[in-house]
From TrEMBL:
Keywords: ATP-binding, Kinase, Nucleotide-binding, Phosphoprotein, Transferase. It comes from Escherichia coli. It holds the Pfam family HATPase_c. The keyword DNA damage does not apply. This is histidine kinase. Residues 321-533 form the Histidine kinase domain. Its EC number is 2.7.13.3.
Amino acid sequence: MKVAPITQKKNKKNRTVGFPIDVHINGGTRIPIEGMKKVLTDLVQADMELWFDPNGIGDTPEVILRTSLTDYQRGNEPENTNRTIEEVTHVLNVNFEALKKIGPVRATIRWFNRERLRQQATLHGNWKAAKAELDLWCGGIAIYRDGFRIGFSGQSTGEDWLGLDSSALKRGGFAVNRIQTVGALEISRKENPGLVDRSNREGLIESPESNLVRDMLSKFAIDELRRYIGHEGQEEKKARLNDIVESAPATIRARILQAEQGLTSIRSKVPADVQESVQSIANNLHFIKNEVTRFEEASKLATERREDILELAGVGTVMSGVLHELTRTTGHTRQLLQKLSKDESPGTKALLTKLDSEIKAINTRLRQLDPLTPSGRHRKEIFNLSALLNTILEGYGARFERHNIIPEFKISGVDDTQPVEVNMVRGFVSLAIENLITNSVYWVQQGGRSDRRITLELDAESRTLTLRDNGPGISPADKDRIFTAGFTMRPKGQGLGLFIAAEVATYHDARLLLDSADEDGRYRGFVLELPKE
């Protein structure tokens, strides 16, 4: 057998062709290295391509990452998305210097829906051939260095280095897993010196660069593909929410128990002039504990029915939010009480009063969501929306102060003293507003501005509620997917808040929309069109 020297062959588009090796036996004719057969390529569902270059892509140096999603079954035009340095560093939670160490990479992911492929191939009488071909090729994303595959990457018997099967059950249908994907990550020894093979060439050595590449592919390619094809259906969403609902109550109760134990052991030792604050904290913690039990009951009902994703989402996000706040406040409670037993300075007493107000704020938020519990579920009522908004903002008071955020609430179309009434489910409306405000609270902290502002404007005449902030805003590339379940630009986000807010609007035959773009082309506002009734 004779193997010809390796040459970098070019095709008509001047791109390097894979497998640049000629194989001959005894000087005979070249033995072809076959690619994927037509029986399978004709049944591709979607292709996702990703290009990353820290030096810039195209004519825009700020754009360092581009994805292109092509859905062959629906016949749509490729969906191209550009990501800037700011966006990529934020999502991956790294600085630009770390990204530059990776070097340029390219990835292609080809996705097949086995269930749909079976239906289509059976119609043409070639199911067995198509299945055999897919079984041969599938296995996830293979890594190619200078055209040569590294070990068994991208093979079903190889390592699941991207974790595709850990986040998607090994089944067919609407799941992005190894049995339904064929892909390649292209790197080179020259351009990617930080991506080093293991000694047995079975994969890449764990390093900051290889971890970043893995995160980049997961968050900008795999997650985007999953969202597009349905994010593995409603069951995937419910499963993630169930995890929150099932784990949060026990964690919250444990936090409260710690704080209550601190109150009991130190209450007699604190000065008389702060006894009132200590008692107030005890009362509010008791209330929160009772509310957690009620929310737990509501979540069990929602889980049993399995038909109302909105309700389960509501309970899940409430639990998650309360857990976040309580983790902070109850931890401070014990520390402050211990300090008070030894230190009676005015500063320490003032901190206790502030802590008391923060726990009261959590209670205020829980009370507004009370209709989500079993006794008030799905009950529309006529109520004053302006009063509800004031109460919700009051519940965020401590959080606004902590993050130096200036809130503003304006009413137009009526006198400030007049009610603006709506006929909606109060708990659902509270949930939608909470998610919009929470979203803004996070993003105004990311823009680098010192004057952080969140503005709510209720227009009684046009029946709209507009929420705007002065954060970095939403990229035009994301405007059509911002309300999609699972989409998020937050490093540890779940992509549920804006989806739930939009679902609340739909439930009431209303709409949640992006406000018009600012001068820089980015979107910083949401408009909730209220029911006209």
